[in-house]
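quick one, 207 residues, struct below
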Amino acid sequence: LGQFHTRLDDEASARQHLQAGLDLARQIKHQQVEAECELVLGQLAFTKDRPEVAARHFARSLGVCKASGDSHGEASVQWWQGKLALQAGELDAAREELGAALQAFVASERRMETLLCLRDLSRLILQMGAAESAVIVASAAVAGLALMGVPPTEAADRRWQAELQALRTSTPDTASFQRAWDAGQEAGIEAAARRALAVLAEMETAA
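---
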């Protein structure tokens, strides 16, 4: 129910149900549910622009995942910690967290998470100065999500339009953007992931 209300943007009801689920999970020592509730509470705080609250929930979720050996959940938390770092302009931390999450998603064939993580990585790659790769990665992610039939929410679409404009203005001209965009449309998810990870590795070496 907590996640249902979260999707409906009903913050008060979402927090109430998630906290109740978290309390119950702790009582019965169900670590997977405990970690998931902490993660979703963090996501809710993230979307409401409360980064410090989000960070606390993410840290607790990650701790539970590590303690229980839940690598699936750990990757999900790393992804959101990377999003939080990216939002805060902490690019090195974002590189580490998003890169680790992407590798885990690819290894476990979590295609939806891979594509959404690639979208976030395109923003990071752009901020770190690799505009062509950012456009290619973003384009591949958009193509993959379209094939999966994933409609964006209204808020997500607004964010994407802003990101798309940033990508357009980052390239020297319209033709350069279109070439990179077309390359991404044809790249596929695996090639886009390899490109993103290669760019991250280059950035780490240069850091």
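Residues 11-28 form the longest helix (18 residues).
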